[in-house]
Automatic annotation (TrEMBL):
Residues 139-150 have a biased composition (Gly residues). Residues 40-131 form the Cytochrome c domain. It comes from the Bacteria. It comes from Geoalkalibacter halelectricus. This is Cytochrome c domain-containing protein.
Length: 150
């Protein structure tokens, strides 16, 4: 009987540790906006957002009159797991989506606007840097986004 209690306690402790690890260090992924879009300029991205009229379809923080209701709100895009519901939210996929949305989702309402790669990178830097992205936890540094342990 004592062995059953000991094994039960051991199993409980192992499972508790595993659950703690998953929730404390793995989920949800923590993204660092400064590292999320390499070589992107958020100020240039804001200008590109205005240039391409993104505000006519999207709500975008820090962009005057960006109150569109056709596309999704973009103020929390850095915390989204997927872009357009189909692409894992990574810097490369953000650039692909901004440049060629119809190659990824042919029936999307988002138009092809002939956005250059650098402009897409800058737009992504602006969107990822909106401040709604969770910062790394103190003592759990790391080098940026993704699903790696901290």
């Amino acid at each position: 009987m004592g062995r059953k209690i000991a094994w039960g306690l051991l199993a409980f402790l192992v499972l508790s540790g595993l659950v703690f690890y998953v929730f404390a260090y793995q989920w949800p992924p923590v993204r660092d906006p400064a590292l999320t879009m390499p070589d992107g300029d958020p100020a240039q991205g804001r200008q590109a957002i205005v240039k391409y009229g993104c505000s006519s379809c999207h709500v975008i923080p820090n962009v005057r009159q960006a109150t569109g209701r056709v596309g999704p709100k973009l103020e929390d895009i850095g915390r989204q797991i997927y872009l357009a519901g189909v692409l894992p939210n990574t810097p490369d996929n953000m650039i692909r989506w901004i440049m060629h949305p119809r190659e990824i989702a042919p029936l999307t309402a988002m138009p092809e606007l002939d956005v250059s790669e650098q402009e897409a990178r800058d737009i992504g830097a602006h969107l990822y840097g909106q401040g709604s992205v969770r910062q790394s936890r103190p003592g759990h540094g790391g080098s940026g986004g993704g699903h790696s342990p901290r």
